[in-house]
């Protein structure tokens, strides 16, 4: 009887895969949220070499156009 209870609590292959995926997803999200107490996030946050320059450039361009004053466009003939 005790052996049956143990067998019922051991996950099958599909359940193990699902639990593994759930665990790794949770840990990955905790890392992205800055909740990993064993990692020094300042190594990444303060290192401009790791910045995605495409995104930085796009953000600067968007700020430029957001700050631009609206004006009338000349009529094309």
Automatic annotation (TrEMBL):
Signal sequence bounds: none
InterPro entries xrefs: CCD97-like_C, Ccdc97-like
Domain of life (superkingdom): Eukaryota
Record domain CCD97-like C-terminal: where: 3-68
Pfam families named among the record's database cross-references: CCD97-like_C (PF09747)
Descriptive protein name: CCD97 protein
Organism listed in the record: Upupa epops (Eurasian hoopoe)
């Amino acid at each position: 009887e005790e052996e049956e209870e143990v067998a019922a609590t051991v996950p099958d292959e599909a359940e193990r895969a699902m639990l593994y995926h759930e665990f790794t997803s949770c840990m990955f999200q905790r890392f992205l949220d800055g909740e990993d107490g064993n990692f020094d996030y300042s190594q990444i946050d303060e290192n401009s070499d790791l910045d995605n320059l495409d995104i930085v450039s796009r953000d600067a361009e968007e700020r430029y156009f957001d700050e631009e004053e609206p004006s009338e466009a000349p009529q094309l003939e």
